[in-house]
Amino acid sequence: MTQAPARPKAARRQHDREIVLLAVPAFGALVAEPLFVMADSAIVGHLGTAQLAGLGVASALLMTAVSVFVFLAYATTAAVARRVGAGDLPSAIRQGMDGIWLALLLGVLVMAAVLPTAPALVALFGASETAAPFATTYLRISALGIPAMLIVLAATGVLRGLQNTRTPLYVAVAGFVANGVLNVVLVYGAGLGIAGSAWGTVIAQWGMAAVYLTVVLRGARRHGASLRPDAAGIRASAQAGAPLLVRTLSLRAILLIATAVAARLGDTDIAAHQIILSLWSLLAFALDAIAIAGQAIIGRYLGAGDAQGARDVCRRMVEWGVAVGVVLGALVVLARPLFLPLFTSDALVKDAALPALVIVAVTQPICGVVFVLDGVLMGAGDGRYLAWAMLVTLAVFIPAALLVPVLGGGLTALWITMTLMMTVRMLTLWLRSRSGRWVVTGAAR
């Protein structure tokens, strides 16, 4: 039996170069997104506590409403990248346009649902009597930007599929700057208060959507791709995204359950949990950037019919995920004396957070493998397996998490269950990657 030849260093360098060129701009764009909320919070916070509380409630509702449709970016990336790999750019852009039309349709439906129900939604989230009017005002105005936000998601997926993550970075940075300027002008200059903040964000979001549409439309004209809505194509985009919606909702459920359990542990533990969760989310951006590169590169290789190339780049990205996870874990350990004081001066909260912080640091290599393989399978269009795998993970996590307060465990025990959750995800994804069943070549899966 002959031994398989070692992977050439030149091939590894090529994979590394592709990963870096796609992942670094993707990371910048990912980080720019939460800065919108931070900028709004910083500006509105000077209006008063009630206004800031209202913004917090409205922003949470908006982010929840929009984040469940992140499949618009993921599914579109995979579909477009396959056609790019197959050398069919007109078909790739046509597929992207179907995703954008689907985003517009869903955005209008969500906007139509939020506008009349804004007061009820705010009340459901438990806003105080003083904060509720501000939350309702902000939510109603910001709902006008939901179609733009979903268009941005889908168009970002188109550009990622076209192996372009720089344009989304430029648009995200420009949108952040425009949002900040508009907020200051409308909130203070025009004296519109929290309504000015909402209008500034809506204008910035539609501006970003307009830029994305301009870029995609230019590509469509250049390659002779049709711009008209195609019912069959939109339906296909929805069918491809449905399993990823199940995956995303399951992950959201896990995070909500973890927060609910932490709340039952007491004020100290829930405060510490929010600090740790914010750090965990920040670290996820770095790992998700590699996953985004994986979606684009794997889709292109499979579209080109290069099954071995897809396997090789998958292996290399897993190595990247582990390496980045080790680096992030080490940074968390080294920075912990500086990190915790940024969020709290309460010694009890610090004591509760420290063991959980160590758990987060140690498990970053596991997270690296999970994020990378998640991106690989998305790029392969293996959404159905991802949905089932996340449902299995959810089924394991729920009883484990609910047992934490019953057995008298604290925040450390809760984050051990979070580690269990990530370990189950890693095992399910690793088994799928090893099976090779995700390797389906061709312009369409």
UniProtKB/TrEMBL annotation:
Pfam families documented for this protein: MatE (PF01554)
Main location: membrane
Domain of life: Bacteria
Membrane-protein topology: Multi-pass membrane protein
PANTHER family (UniProt xref): PROTEIN DETOXIFICATION 44, CHLOROPLASTIC, PROTEIN DETOXIFICATION 44, CHLOROPLASTIC-RELATED
NCBIfam families: matE
Family to which this protein belongs: Belongs to the multi antimicrobial extrusion (MATE) (TC 2.A.66.1) family.
Listed name of the protein: MATE family efflux transporter
Organism field: Streptomyces tendae
